[in-house]
Input
Amino acid sequence: MENTEFKNLILQGIPDELPQPKPYDPNVNHAPKRKDILSKEEKKLAIRNALRYFPAKHHAVLAKEFAQELKQYGRIYMYRFRPDYKIYARPIGEYPAQTPQTAAIMLMIQNNLDEAVAQHPHELIIYGGNGAIFQNWAQYLLTMKYLATMTDHQTLVMYSGHPLGLFPSHPEAPRVVVTNGMVVPNYSSPDHWEKFNALGVSQYGQMTAGSYMYIGPQGIVHGTTITIMNASRKISRKNAGSEMKLFVSSGLGGMSGAQPKAGNIAGVVSLVAEINPKAAYKRFNQGWVDEVIDDVDKAIQTALYWKEKGQPHSIAYLGNVVDLWERLANNDIHVDIGSDQTSLHNPFAGGYYPVGLSFEESQEMMVRQPELFKEKVQASLRRQVAAINKIASKGMYFFDYGNAFLLESGRAGADIFDARDNFIYPSYVQDIMGPLYFDYGFGPFRWVCTSGDPKDLDKTDQIAGDIFEELLKDAVDEIQQQLKDNLVWIRQAKANKLVVGSQARILYADAEGRIRISTAFNRAIASGEISAPIVLGRDHHDVSGTDSPFRETSNIYDGSSFTADMAVQNMVGDAIRGATWVSLHNGGGVGWGEAINGGFGLVLDGSNEAQRRLQSMLFWDVNNGIARRSWARNHGAMYTLQRTMQQEPLLKVTFPNLVDDQLLEKLDI
Ligand SMILES: NC(=O)c1ccc[n+]([C@@H]2O[C@H](COP(=O)([O-])OP(=O)(O)OC[C@H]3O[C@@H](n4cnc5c(N)ncnc54)[C@H](O)[C@@H]3O)[C@@H](O)[C@H]2O)c1
Output
């Protein structure tokens, strides 16, 4: 398709004439049918809501079609309106736009929806089973048209995928403000999501799905590599052994599929169970897992062979993870590191497949007999925990991987609590990400080269690596390891072929690293060394971006882990300091109602204005969370904050006074 034709189609928005209905494409991975949750009257409301996007002349045809979609899929996706052009991150110049900022946002939206990137592209689901960018195709078409026509005296307001409209603002303001799934707090149960989403009035934006910042699996490969490396170090220190480690987990889906690849980079043997053959073979064909084995004993024997050999290797066990854990427990096999990455943020609607049922039986039962299915999921979790406990009692280091495994196992009545009602296993944030990374300001900083030219990405890799080398020279001991691990990562990033979709890179950096790297990028754009603007962003899973008591803020111990002031403040603070777009979401990772998280995008165009914005915004974006973590008495954060206050006299943060434990012990209360 010619570029002019593409531009015209974007500018057209919702077409005046109805496009032809789209046949259902069986070659694409589709979202599972959603729960039939609406009453008859509510179904009429959902259809009335959907028809608001179209003139009355089309209502008779579309009402019938939408009723059918609702019946068949549990949602109205408006499949007919999915564009015929290929959706992917085009070079920035190919978008019709009034400003490079809005063109960059269009590029990021199209990257999320790229069939190579999105999990269920036709249902506008980007990852995690239900992480949506839009609820339906009309919202996509309208949003792209608004972005193409708006100026820098307007701000686009997005309510859960719905473009409310353009409002007059000013060039300093964000071009887009996104909220996803925000509800009055008492209406935040999983069934509320099912209902509001089916009505077409809310969506689960996950983290980077609804905020246009997903860069495919690379982000998660990096986070998982760091986690497995540090988990290995933890047990190596304990056992003083340097022999090859065996890592057992589950899930080869959107994010979980990073585990075997990360395991190979981190230098362990990984054995990962996956029940869905499509997911397992997708990773195998991509080269992200070395082999797929459907016999549980053979899978275990193969893992032990490579462990014995002392060589990193990854195996997908095609089957249920409970069968794998039970076989390992019954055969008394030593596992070094264990985790789980089924989609337990969405336990009863396709995120977790109970043992004893085939994949197809589960899919049938979750729709037709949801109560029975829930019982099966909970019984399966109890069995899984029993087997894990047996192996952990012999020395396995097990951690929760931010997928609500402990939370849902606890709710299922599994033996997962100690005498004080705390979980017996830590989350990866409590043990690794929190104390080693977030408390020191290190988090998943990322960037996208909008030229789409791999040479630009190479240049940025070079710049970022050189800056990390410089930072290492004067770094304090506390952050040496983090810098070293990330230096290795960035130097090997190209060779590891991590790009899927846009020319993007992720690197865990602290405030200083992020600002220095961005400053160098901005200069390189100004000098023409880098050929087009760069989008800066991050995963919401960061120092300040997310309040989530069982994940990002699980290492906050002053009782404030259930508050969400930090994430809300973060989004507002980014908006007033120059972000190009900001977002705030209910849910993300662990499930609807379980977290509040937000993020930003900042377009660097080589200007002095971009330099001013990046300095002010990135400093706040990291130090907000450090200040909160310091107030919660987290040692690393207190240390980092004091150093930062010495360097920046305008930063004046309330510092906690520590109390002698003995004083409290003596109190008669
Ligand atoms: N790794 C991280 O740092 C991180 C970060 C954010 C979120 N998460 C969480 O991890 C979870 C997984 O994310 P995802 O994007 O991979 O989701 P996904 O739904 O794409 O993948 C999960 C996979 O688990 C498989 N599965 C489910 N039950 C199973 C069972 N009993 N046995 C074997 N396989 C089973 C599914 O078939 C699916 O392929 C989510 O809850 C997500 O929120 C992890």
In short: The domain at 436-661 is CATH 3.40.1770.10 (Urocanase fold).
